[in-house]
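Chapter review: from sequence to fold.
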Amino acid sequence: MRVVVAMSGGVDSSVAAALLKQAGHEVIGATMQLFTPPVRNNGNEQAPDAVTDARKVAANLGIPHHVIDLQDVFARTIIADFCEEYRLGRTPNPCVRCNQLIKFGMLWEKARELGTDILATGHYARIEKDKITGKNLLKKGEDPRKDQSYFLCRLTQEQLSRTLFPLGNLTKTEVRKIARELGLPAATRPESQEICFIPGDDYAAFLQSHAPTAAVPGPVLDTEGNTLGQHRGITYYTIGQRKGLGIAAPSPLYVTAIEPAKNAVIVGAKAQTYADELIADNLNWISDVPPEFPLTVKARVRYRHTEAEAIVSLLDKTSVNVMFSAPQMAVTPGQAVVFYDGDTVIGGGTIMKQGR
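The token string follows.
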């Protein structure tokens, strides 16, 4: 089978390509060029790290390598949305949107031009067939520390049907061991937790450059509307944040809300950062068919958040209410809420607001 592997130059995508080649597939490496990165420290290297590093891995594996220029569409659909969300006082998750539209959308279209309908990635997730319905199930990766099913909650049946996750049954430790045994250049490459298009993980500098109207100082208010100080711009804050508020108080203060219409940051006690329900829209159901409501699930409101028992109820054709069995901290508009049944992803949506 001919397979295009999305290669970033990192250890995960490198091992994914190696495993598929070992299994006898005809493997083609493809690296998305999504933005123009800063010049490397030596002042000479202009190419993106992902491109140069992936090219080395492909050469090591003896597979062809292609660079797919998606900079324009990435800027329009991912970076612009990211900036607009912050301007609106929300905290977006661009990786969820990128997987849906770019990696499993535009990149797959380019894969077809290379003569294949199959795209493989280095995600820690699994795809299985439902024995009764025959539909594709999206499941957590076997390694609970690396499971990335949260970021894939917007994939469709069609996308899953043409996708391979070679690392789904492996742990990160096993993947690094395979990379070392194969002598892959990425074997010791450090892991990045940063958003790929933000240099040095400096959100503030990036947003000040790309969304300056959201970096205008304004009032910091308590939950009663009293002015406690001044913030640097709403882009610097997110729900649940404690550090960097610059306000002296007898007890710790946390961001409880952001009100872009007032250009205000609202702060309160830690208890005020908890919510027992949320409303979500922009819904996607992995089966492509909405479930029967009310629906009992385990819900996750951020990638590193512990799943919590919840009941999902339909509000209208485009939104649901999620009621938790116990209040959850830092339920943040703009983030993805993902619904699980055991290790199976049922679907997910975008958090609109806390409560009804």
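Two observations follow directly from the output. The chain has a mean pLDDT of 92. The longest strand covers residues 274-285.
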